[in-house]
Amino acid sequence: MRINSGRWNTIKDFDDLMKARGIEPALPGYTEDDAFKWCAECITQCLPKAAECGVTLAVENHWGLTRTPEGLLRLSKEIQSPWFGVLMDTGNFLENPYDKLSQVASKTVYVQAKTYFGGGEWYTLDLDYPRIAKILSQAGYSGWVSLEMEGKENPDLAVPKSIQLLRKAFGV
Q1: How far apart are the C-alpha atoms of 77 and 85, rounded to whole Å?
Q2: Looking at CB atoms within 10 Å, which of 4, 101, 135, 172 has the fewest?
Q3: Which option is the CATH number for 2-170: 3.40.50.300, 3.40.50.620, 3.20.20.150, 3.40.1190.20?
Q4: How far is it, in rounded angstroms, from Cα 62 to Cα 75?
Q5: Contacts of 76 (CB under 8 A, 6+ apart)
Q6: How do the domains of the chain map onto residue ranges?
Q7: Considering the entire predicted model, what is its pTM?
Q8: Which residues are registered as beta bridge partners of 148?
Q9: Other Cβ atoms within 10 Å of 64 Cβ, number
């Protein structure tokens, strides 16, 4: 199950948050250390129910605390459970994506592969999926890869092209 670490909401407009590359100041009087503690406590409280239901909680590299590999790995180190892992979103590391994807690949339990046919809404990444597939393979990943098409092209055209791209890259 995909989960996020949340964000401070000190930048109210999502377009402005995207202009800031997902970097947002903390609430006055609080620190990222406070937020990591809260996030880990909340996820830990959910783990018994996740285990009971046979569901793995996968925190996405998204905005907020998990926008960096270091943030994801910090939570992964703090929360030791077979019911918790990393959801790798291939399009959410905006700079140096391959180095960052490599850093979290060994903790990855689920992958969302982004495509941007027709250009993206806030940004467009030209991702090298054979390279990403190799990163995941070298880390021993053998789970699901889901498509997250964020392009502006007609989905009737872009989704089949995206599926073909991913099948070729992952050898399926």
Answers
A1: 10
A2: 172
A3: 3.20.20.150
A4: 13
A5: 59, 84, 85, 86, 107
A6: 2-170
A7: 0.93
A8: 114
A9: 20
Residue in this structure with the two tokens 């997902």, named with its chain if needed: 22
pLDDT 10s digits, 138-150: 999 999 999 999 9
Question: Which two structure tokens, joined as six digits, stand for 16?
Answer: 């402005």
Helices assigned H by DSSP within 95-148: 97-104, 129-138
> What SS3 state is found at 106?
helix
Rounded to whole angstroms, how far apart are CA atoms 81 and 117?
A: 37
DSSP state at residue 82: T
12-65 confidence digits (pLDDT tens): 999 999 899 889 999 999 999 999 999 999 999 999 999 999 999 999 999 889
> Token match 């789970």: residue?
143
CB 40 within 8 A of CB 75: yes
